[in-house]
Design goal:
- There is one protein chain.
- The protein is mostly helical.
- It is built from nine helices and four strands; from the N terminus they run ααααββαααββαα.
- Strand 3 and strand 4 form a beta hairpin.
- InterPro entries: Cyt_c-like_dom, Cyt_c-like_dom_sf, Cyt_c1.
- It is found in: Membrane.
């Protein structure tokens, strides 16, 4: 009798547990039907990235070195004071058309130097960057390290278009409808309204404030829109500098597999010719 009684108790406990879960599910569904969740400010006013066409897009895409060099210039003159590119080395710039002497000069003239420690005195100092060094990190005492941009295009959905949209998407005022429907979404002091940023308000001031912040050596007009496109293209490259090699390897593999499939099918027809199976 005791084993039967224990099994009955276990069954009742399990049944009660299932009943509680079922009631919770029904209550949740009824609550959602009666009071559906209200849309948030981000859901209502966040914009998807603007369309951006780059030379590297698509399976046949190739990097435009002229644009990448323009983008690096924008990064160097506008972005590098706040953001680092610490996962890339100066000598990687040779991949986008700079020669060895130019890379050495860029490294030496870079405003942030390489930190070095004197093992005897235990003190820290600085030295000029070498071509083999990685881009030094940017650090602000008391506030920390701003986001590194080496992989930003990979870290964001539709990265190139996101960067371009963010840089050109700053607005001086929030929409009146936003403040009317979501009074708590007012841009805090020290932040800036940008509908292409995840929560609409971003601490970074607009990096591109107008035309001709840089001077392109190839004669291209450095409009705000052009600078945003160029630096977006450069950060797409920094995220995946081996993109062209990967595409080439992918095509070689696909061609090999097609040929191998044809040979295998031909062998199949030869071996099993005239045999019913």
């Amino acid at each position: 009798m005791l084993p039967l009684f224990m099994r009955s108790i276990k069954f009742l406990v399990g049944l009660a547990f299932i009943g509680v879960l079922f009631l919770s599910l029904v209550g949740t569904i009824v609550g959602l039907v009666k009071e559906p969740p209200q849309p948030t400010a981000e859901e209502e006013f966040h914009h998807h990235p603007k369309p951006l066409k780059l030379a590297s897009d698509g399976p046949f895409g190739k990097f435009d070195n002229a644009q990448l060099q323009r983008g690096f210039l924008v990064f160097e003159k506008v972005c590098a004071s706040c953001h680092s590119l610490n996962l890339a080395s100066f000598r990687d710039l040779q991949q986008i058309g700079y020669n060895e002497a130019e890379v050495k000069k860029i490294a030496k003239d870079w405003p942030i130097k390489q930190p070095v420690q004197d093992p005897k005195a235990g003190t820290w100092g600085e030295r000029d960057n070498l071509a083999s060094d990685r881009f030094p990190k940017v650090f602000y005492p008391g506030t920390g390290t701003p986001p590194d941009l080496t992989l930003i295009a990979k870290a964001r959905h539709n990265g190139g278009a996101y960067i371009y949209s963010l840089l050109t998407g700053y607005e001086d005022k929030q929409p009146a409808e936003l403040l009317k429907n979501f009074p708590g979404a007012k841009t805090p002091e020290g932040s800036h309204y940008n509908p292409y940023f995840a929560n609409l308000n971003i601490a970074m001031p607009p990096p591109l404030t107008g035309d001709d912040q840089v001077t392109y050596s190839d004669g291209t007009r450095a409009t705000k829109d052009q600078m945003a496109k160029d630096v977006a293209a450069f950060l797409v490259w920094s995220s995946e500098p081996t993109l062209q090699k990967r595409h080439a390897a992918g095509f070689a593999v696909v061609i090999f597999l097609l040929i191998a499939t044809g040979l295998a099918y031909g062998a199949y027809l030869t071996v099993w010719r005239g045999v019913k199976h």
